[in-house]
Amino acid sequence: MKPSLPQGTRDFNANVIGKRNYIFNIIRSVFELYGFQPIETPAMENLDTLMGKYGDEGDKLIFKILNNGLDNIAKHESARQEFEKILQGKNTKGITERALRYDLTIPFARYVAMNHGQLTMPFKRYQIQPVWRADRPQRGRYREFYQCDADVVGSYSLMNEVELANIYATVFSKLGIGVEIKINSRKVLAALAEIIGGADKIIDITIAIDKLDKIGLEKVKEELAQRGLEEHQINAIEKYLAINGANEEKIIALKDLIGDNETGKKGIEEIEFVINYPKENFGVTSEIVTDFTLARGLNYYTGIIFEVKAKDAEMGSIGGGGRYDDLTGTFGVPNIAGVGISFGVDRIYDVMDELKLFPDNVAKSTQVLFFNLGESESKMAFGIMQQLRAKNIRCEIYPDQAKFDKQFKYAEKKDITYAIIIGTEEMNTNMVKLKNLQTGTQHNFAVEELFKFDF
Fold this sequence. Notes:
Number of domains: 2
CATH topology of the largest domain: BirA Bifunctional Protein, domain 2
Oligomer: single chain
Structural class: alpha+beta
Strand order of the largest sheet: 1-5-6-11-10-9-7-8
Helix content: 40-55%
Radius of gyration: 28 Å
CATH architecture of the largest domain: 2-Layer Sandwich
CATH class of the largest domain: Alpha Beta
Number of helices: 18
Strand content: 15-25%
């Protein structure tokens, strides 16, 4: 049987891992620069923790895990009925009680609800772990992928949104990716629903609008009609989606449309606070673009929402997030405010690979290869190698006594820059031969001088 991978998953070789770690390390360093601390949560959560938090569309993408001892379950007469419920999209504890996490936000909310008495509030955490979604695999969309999240809970201050926007700008600046940081508010969308007389349709409206980039305006209008909105309501939404221009022009047009709606006015005030924060202190906020078509389909957002798009690559969002006040209330701990952002590392990788933004040496591991020319020579090489390793020079020795050509080809395939050759003559004179495999230049060094060389 030919081995294969589950659809939507990937193996990673050393070259890819080196590039991915480059992204992880930059994101992690910026998170810590802004005072965030790491946590980790389990790969699986209780099904009750996840279900109902992502809307109907999201719930369908949750990977459910069959209970242990399924053979015993199958012996019961009710097993067939239980499986029938599963096939209908329902849940039954007789078959499944757990699922792989869909994102990092809900597990974090569960973590806060369980530990809030011991946390220093506001609590600033970051988390870098894989998540799983039963999505249709395609470029930039996988069933197993990493998220890098930063969240603040226990504070209603919009300074958190300003800081998170600057984290986005700082990370992407360090990665060399030109981006648009799009901003909107769920309060603006809630106001739109209220104005057109469909306050109870807010979820239907946001889910449909969230698909605008993927399916286009006409399909969005069709979906709104299918979700029970009337023609005059759809026309009002179309007028809202047509707002364009610079940030200031869009806000003026939105104010005209929203009128005196209190929810909408509050949303606009919050957007203005973030985009107008003093640029002499936070210059990167100039990269923020108001986008009133931005909806974020997840149900739990309540205020400012973000989405990040790469300017020079055809790719979906490479980051997103927003405010989700009282998310912990679903776990019996109400009134804990929260706001957070997420980086889509796999899509960021694809963008950087396409635009050739990775540094040349980012995926290199071994710097120096010691050739193996015999037992005595290898013992001397090993002692020198250990001293170089103590100086954080990444070294290895070819394990077998082999022809020069074979050892040179090994170094070439691993993209190793230097080779150190110790033969009988070098042993007798306490010298080494250092060859730069990239340029072909070669020099002889006394062993004690080798330790001063800049590799």
